[in-house]
Amino acid sequence: MKREGEILIISQVYPPDPAAVGQYIADAADELAGRGWRVRVLTADRGYDDPGLQFPSREEANGIRIDRLPWSSLGKRSLGIRLVGMVSFLAQAFLRGLGTRDLRAICVSTSPPMAGAVAWLIAALRRVPLVYWVMDLNPDQAVASRQVRAGSPLVRLFAMVNARVLRDAASVIALDRFMADRLRAKSVPLRRLAIIPPWPLDHRLSPRPLVGNPFRRRHGLDGKFVVMYSGNHSLVHPLDTLLAVARELRHEPHLSFVLVGGGVAKAPFEAAERRGELRNLVLLPYQPLDEVATSLSAADLQVVVMGDAMVGCVHPCKFYGALAVGRPVMLIGPAECHVTDVFRRADCGWRHAHGDVAGIVARLRRLAQPESARELAAKARAGLQALEDGLSRDRLRRHWGNVFEDAIAEGG
Question: Model's pTM, two decimal places?
Answer without folding.
Answer: 0.87
